[in-house]
Sequence to fold (123 residues):
Amino acid sequence: MKGRGDRPARVGERIREELSLLLQRKARDPGLSSVTITEVSVTPDLKIAHVNYSALVAPDERRGVAQALRRSEGFLRRELGKVLDLRYAPELQFHYDDSFDRGARIDAILRGIAGEKGGPGEG
Fold:
């Protein structure tokens, strides 16, 4: 069984790539137009894929994006099953990735601090 430890990581990366393509090319739901798949981690038995996503929408519209992903889960899983060479298409569990939001908030704080000091060149 040597070399099997990285298989979930490889499958996760392949799922991320395929999901991104499916969302760009085949998904018809307008709620999915702003979704970006950031990371996919797969359980060791390859039966569950935890899909992290971000969406360029207002915070109050995120619930609609999550609902659109849940509505499309069956379609996305079926399409993944066609392109992946796996015995079973993994169950997709979607999780919102707020790292971009946190990064923007930190950036705004740092810009505010730099502005208080009189400019970015000082300090």
